[in-house]
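Worked Example 4.2. Consider the chain below.
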Amino acid sequence: MSPYAIDRIVDTDAVRITVQGDVDYATAAAIHDALAPEGRFTEARRLWDLRGCAMRLTPEELKDFARLATEYDHEPARCALLADGDLEFGLLRIHGVYRESEFTALLVTRDEAEAVTWVLGDLEADRP
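Applying the procedure from the previous section yields the following structure tokens:
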């Protein structure tokens, strides 16, 4: 069984990436490969549901994935990161600092309704 699933959020153009168990380098790399098969994200609206996950990424790995994700977005995008653990929430906030880009707006939250509402918001609203 795969440690993640990528599903369309019903009646929207957004996807939910649901991750189960530990988030290690191999899992994170596989998810990025699935979302950006040609080195570009295919979905502009992504909700990462990481509730219940344990982050097993080093600070350098977090920075590496932030750099990759920044390179993969070439159009306006919204990405919400949903976490419930204190450590995971904090690590994702740090990831968000490294993840900032001219194209992607990022929200780290503990509230699912907020994450869904935000990720479905105006793609152009956050552009400089």
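The domain at 4-119 is CATH 3.40.50.10600 (Rossmann fold). The chain has a mean pLDDT of 91. Compare this with Example 4.1 before moving on.
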